[in-house]
């Protein structure tokens, strides 16, 4: 029954010799220590020989701590990936495959071929045969496209069929076992189809009296044999010469399914295209035969040259996206046929990308084996080019296991439409699991509300949607041709619970937001940021819409919106009987207000028993208004307020001490019965009198939990002046 937390905390001080970030939020020091210990040893930050307790030849730091690691970050040149895939760390990798849930990449640099081989093995083991459910990438100003697409593709569960670990000298044992099982199933299937041939032929012989019997028998026999040949082509390796021979035979030799030569490449190709499902595909492919043959000369089949990663990576971006990027492309039925007929070593589809270096790769997603994929993908501050966006779009279009998608500051621009195309394709899968989408960037290429409607109309099952842009694109409206506007998209009734919109100084028109609110009956949280109010009635219209459409709304937040002239609406919100958390962050509430307005706020909150959290950061409260807020907890108050945030409000130590004394008096009058538990004081002027501030904080911490920081107000003021 004794806690070991103090021991692990002391071990941290002895071994790490650093102050852990956000130490107040650490709930388990054992887990924190072992995860950090593993990471520091892996990256060479911690020298185990410097501590006598760790300097033991029989002790493996990585092996000892690996079962406790649920989150791992790989940086720079991916040295950690090379170390983890070394032969002597095989057991460490096996432990991580069980324990690791979150894999992060940060500040990556370009890597050579040997490092990419190690990364392939690591991702294959931890994602495809492991427990990693989240892949996050951070701060990669000039991403290596090959490396980026490799990580994205393997996170989505894709790798080449029949040779998933083409960069490793020995095949993956788990894949080998799965391959044996599949081979046995395939052999059993071929045996069953052989019986099918004999049975159907026998039936045909017995029905000679019917004039239709021979034709029907031939058709069914040929269908069964074509199925068998299709299976053998899709599953078995062929040499480049056989690939080319098959292709030439399919375009020159007339189809004759009655004379099947066992194992003949020509006949396999003929039967493939004789199969009823594939005839249409053959007609579509013949038109580009010249381009195909040029690409075929660079084809290698499923067992390709292990040095040629580039081919596979860039074919991902050129996949026929089922009409996602081109409205005039083939129908869904035709695309299903193309998907069925594609195989390792199949001809290149002849997209424009074939003209670029490395783009002649034949190994497409259609031929890649599908492994386990992650459920969360996060990309922070990683510029995405047009080709990378097309790759990501193709991956998203079938990534049914994906539950959380975060795209933050990726410089999408017009490529946002490409991403939306992939998401729309994903939404058509009945087993799609996407529930959280967060998109943020510097420039918006389309109005925020239009993007919200577009995403929500495709994914009514979303629980969280966040759209955030810093600045409005000056060229907005000059959109690429062929991308229809989403502004008129009809929104079905949705499951949305949390909606966050950061407008790039766009006017907030309730009429555009209203369809979203009406469709989101289950909305619990709404956050509106950096919007302008086009008229004085707009906020009132919004409150009426919220009251009518979203009766279960619990949390409402306004950030960086000028509400100085909307005192009536602010008071209406504070007396709402349903809202439990209200945030007015940097809303200039008291810029032109009178003392009567502050008194009305206090009296309104005192009468509201449902409000649990009131956040007022950045509203120029100052000392005197902070002291007045203590009356919320007076003896005659019905307030249930638990949390109060007064960060960035020019509060000085003497004002905080006076607030503390007044609060203590109210608590004493109420016999110690008070629900107030949390006070946030970030970025106030408490450094101006350290002794007074310490006394105020000491007395406050006896009443509630106080969260503050050591903020240098003089430096902050200097920085503010310097940018004015």
From TrEMBL:
Which gene is annotated as encoding this protein in its UniProt record?
Lrrc41
Keywords assigned: Leucine-rich repeat, Phosphoprotein, Repeat, Ubl conjugation pathway
Q: Does the keyword Repeat apply?
A: yes
The record's annotation in InterPro entries points to: Leu_rpt_41 (IPR026137), LRR_dom_sf (IPR032675)
The record's listing under SUPFAM superfamilies reads: RNI-like (SSF52047)
User: Under which name does UniProt file this protein?
Assistant: Leucine-rich repeat-containing protein 41
Q: Specify residue ranges for compositional bias: Polar residues.
A: 327-344
Biased composition, class Basic and acidic residues, residue ranges: 190-206
Instruction: Extract one GO cellular component term from the record.
Output: cytoplasm
Q: Where is this region: Disordered?
A: 183-217, 324-344
């Amino acid at each position: 029954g004794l806690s070991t937390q103090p021991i692990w905390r002391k071990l941290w001080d002895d071994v790490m010799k650093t102050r852990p970030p956000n130490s107040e939020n650490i709930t388990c020091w054992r887990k924190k220590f072992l995860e950090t210990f593993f990471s520091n040893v892996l990256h060479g930050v911690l020298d185990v020989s410097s501590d006598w307790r760790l300097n033991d030849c029989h002790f493996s730091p990585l092996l000892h701590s690996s079962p406790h690691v649920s989150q791992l970050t790989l940086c720079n040149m991916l040295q950690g990936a090379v170390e983890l895939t070394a032969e002597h760390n095989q057991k460490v990798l096996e432990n991580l495959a069980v324990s690791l849930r979150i894999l992060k990449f940060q500040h990556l640099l370009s890597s050579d071929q040997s490092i990419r081989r190690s990364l392939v093995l690591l991702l294959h083991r931890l994602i495809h045969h492991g427990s990693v459910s989240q892949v996050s990438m951070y701060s990669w100003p000039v991403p290596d496209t090959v490396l980026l697409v490799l990580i994205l593709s393997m996170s989505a569960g894709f790798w080449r069929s029949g040779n998933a670990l083409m960069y490793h000298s020995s095949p993956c044992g788990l894949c080998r076992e799965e391959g044996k099982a599949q081979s046995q199933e395939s052999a059993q299937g071929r045996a069953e189809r052989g019986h099918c041939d004999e049975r159907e032929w026998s039936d045909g012989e017995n029905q000679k009296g019917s004039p239709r019997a021979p034709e029907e028998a031939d058709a069914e026999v040929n269908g069964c044999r074509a199925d068998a040949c299709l299976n053998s082509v899709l599953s078995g390796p062929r040499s480049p010469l056989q690939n080319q021979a098959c292709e030439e035979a399919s375009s020159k030799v007339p189809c004759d399914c009655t004379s099947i030569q066992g194992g003949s490449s020509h006949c396999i190709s003929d039967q493939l295209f004789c199969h009823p499902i594939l005839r249409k595909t053959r007609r579509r492919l013949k038109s580009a035969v010249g381009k195909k043959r040029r690409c075929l000369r660079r084809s290698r089949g499923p067992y390709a040259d292990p040095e040629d990663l580039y081919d596979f990576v860039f074919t991902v971006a050129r996949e026929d996206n089922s009409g996602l990027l081109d409205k005039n492309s083939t129908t869904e039925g035709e695309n299903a046929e193309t998907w069925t007929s594609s195989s390792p070593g199949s001809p290149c589809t002849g997209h424009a990308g074939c003209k670029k270096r490395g783009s002649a790769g034949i190994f497409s997603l259609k031929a890649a084996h599908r492994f386990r994929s992650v459920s969360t993908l996060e990309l922070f501050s990683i510029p995405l080019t047009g080709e990378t966006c097309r790759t990501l779009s193709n991956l998203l279009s079938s990534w049914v296991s994906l539950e959380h998608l975060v795209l933050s500051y990726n410089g999408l621009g017009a490529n946002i439409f490409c991403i939306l195309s992939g998401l729309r394709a994903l939404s058509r899968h009945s087993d799609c699991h996407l529930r959280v989408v967060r998109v943020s960037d510097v420039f918006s290429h389309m109005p925020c509300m239009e993007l919200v409607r577009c995403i929500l109309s495709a994914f009514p099952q979303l629980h969280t949607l966040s759209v955030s842009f810093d600045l409005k694109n000056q060229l907005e409206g000059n959109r690429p041709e062929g991308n229809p506007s989403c502004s008129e998209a009809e929104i079905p009734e949705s499951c949305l619970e949390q909606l966050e919109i950061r407008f790039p100084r766009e006017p907030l028109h309730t009429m555009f937001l209203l369809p979203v609110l009406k469709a989101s009956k289950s909305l619990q949280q709404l956050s509106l940021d950096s919007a302008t109010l086009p008229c004085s009635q707009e906020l009132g219209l919004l409150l009426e819409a919220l009251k009518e459409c979203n009766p279960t709304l619990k949390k409402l937040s306004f950030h960086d919106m000028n509400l100085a002239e909307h005192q009536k609406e602010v008071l209406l919100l504070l007396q709402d009987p349903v809202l439990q958390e209200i945030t007015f962050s940097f809303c200039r509430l008291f810029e032109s207000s009178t003392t009567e307005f502050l008194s009305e706020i206090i009296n309104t909150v005192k009468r509201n028993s449902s409000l649990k959290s009131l956040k007022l950061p950045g509203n120029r409260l100052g000392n005197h208004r902070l002291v007045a807020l203590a009356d919320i907890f007076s003896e005659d108050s019905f307030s249930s307020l638990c949390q109060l945030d007064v960060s960035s409000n020019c509060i000085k130590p003497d004002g905080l001490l006076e607030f503390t004394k007044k609060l203590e008096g109210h608590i004493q009058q109420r016999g110690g019965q008070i629900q107030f538990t949390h006070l946030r004081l970030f970025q106030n002027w408490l450094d101006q009198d350290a002794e007074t501030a310490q006394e105020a904080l000491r007395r406050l911490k006896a009443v509630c939990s106080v969260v503050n920081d050591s903020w240098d107000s003089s430096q902050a003021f200097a920085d503010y002046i310097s940018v004015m």
